[in-house]
Specification:
By secondary structure, this protein is of the alpha/beta class. The protein is built from 14 helices and 11 strands. Strand 10 and strand 11 form a beta hairpin. The termini are far apart. It binds iron/sulfur cluster (SF4).
Length: 345
């Protein structure tokens, strides 16, 4: 067995195009790769999985790894990740995305995994200049330094644009057979995927998590100012990425489903609250968070009726269900959409 065949790399793996290609490039070089997927609970693939949508994580990540023929290791990191979203040392991007801290965190996890499992270096699908902040050259350097992976962090898609790493210096990988991809375009990556017949990847483009989304950022800040950081749970952070979010004049939060999949998600969502649905007309599932009083439930019922097919009726019946299973029926006047929109977070 030649030296290269004994070399093992661990790849940070989202199941997206770039990390899929990075793994494939390593395989072309005869490196044994393990794909490491770190679940933060903020990724689009996870949200889509919750909503039962497209073939996505875990199946998407699993399918991408299976299509590549590499072992996949999935680690849930939500608890350790949440504090850095609340207090990022390097600040936020355009939303509440702590991209630099996020990369450092994920790479530290990968480093630890690498050391515990006798692997030689860490691979990522990062591309120089692809994202505004976290993938600019100076930031790539900061991230490498802060992760403790200096020299052992290998970015094969942009390798020609970066100083040689230890895997290249030691001849574990052939620098000549790597790539010099940069920028936001995806042409080169798509061409590579076509060349290798790669069709299985979880997200074709765009950001990797919804912390970058402006609407999500608004809801996040609103949640922190009303409920406070101590109230953030996995369910709450995921719920903020689903449905319409409204604040009643009392400050009570109401979440209204926008389509069937969101309605199903809200109906099954494990939070403290009261659930509302319309009886005689198709309509949304609504959750009123916490323990609302009668007046708040009535306002939420009017909102629910206003988003139902009965919105032009003078009166709509709404079923109110507590977490304990008690139900009650309310007859309410649907709230006009403009009034509901004014309550939107
Ligand atoms: S956009 Fe990507 S790098 Fe930035 S915080 Fe989200 S997962 Fe991390």
């Amino acid at each position: 067995m030649g030296e290269r065949e004994r070399i093992k790399a661990v790849a940070l793996f989202s199941g997206g195009l770039d990390s899929t290609l990075a793994v494939r490039v390593m395989m072309e070089q005869g490196i044994a790769v393990t794909a490491l997927h770190l679940r933060t609970s903020f990724s689009y693939v996870e949200r889509n999985r919750l909503l039962g949508g497209d073939p996505v994580e875990p199946t998407g990540v699993e399918r991408s790894a299976a299509a590549l023929g590499v072992p996949l290791h999935v680690m849930d990191v939500f608890e350790a990740y949440l504090p850095l979203v609340l207090n990022p040392r390097y600040g936020y991007g355009s939303g509440v995305n702590p991209c630099v801290d996020c990369r450092i965190f994920l790479l530290r996890q990968a480093k630890q995994w690498m050391e515990e499992h006798d692997h030689h270096f860490v691979v990522t699908g990062e591309v120089v200049g692809q994202r505004p902040k976290s993938q600019m050259r100076p930031t790539l350097r900061t991230v490498e330094r802060e992760s403790g992976l200096r020299g052992y962090l290998f970015r094969p898609l942009s390798a020609w644009l970066l100083p040689p790493t230890i895997p290249e210096q030691r001849g574990w990988v052939d620098r000549e057979a790597l790539y010099g991809i940069s920028g936001r375009g995806r042409k080169e990556q798509i061409a590579l995927a076509e060349r290798w017949g790669i069709t299985e990847y979880a997200q074709p483009s765009g950001g990797c998590c919804y912390l970058i989304d402006q609407v999500y950022a608004r809801r996040w800040r609103d949640f922190l100012s009303h409920e406070g950081p101590q109230a953030l749970t996995r369910q709450q952070v995921q719920l903020m990425a689903v449905g319409r979010h409204l604040r009643l004049p009392s400050g009570r939060k109401v979440v209204v489903g926008r389509h069937e999949r969101e309605n199903e998600y809200l109906a099954a969502c494990e939070v403290e609250g009261v659930w509302l649905t319309t009886c005689d007309h198709p309509g949304p599932t609504t959750v009123v968070m916490g323990t609302p009083i009668g007046e708040e439930i009535e306002q939420a019922a009017r909102i629910t009726a206003g988003y139902s097919d009965g919105r032009r009726e003078p009166v709509v019946h709404v079923k109110v269900q507590s977490a304990a299973g008690a139900t009650e029926l309310l007859a309410v006047e649907p709230m006009p959409r403009e009034r509901a929109r004014a309550l939107m977070v």
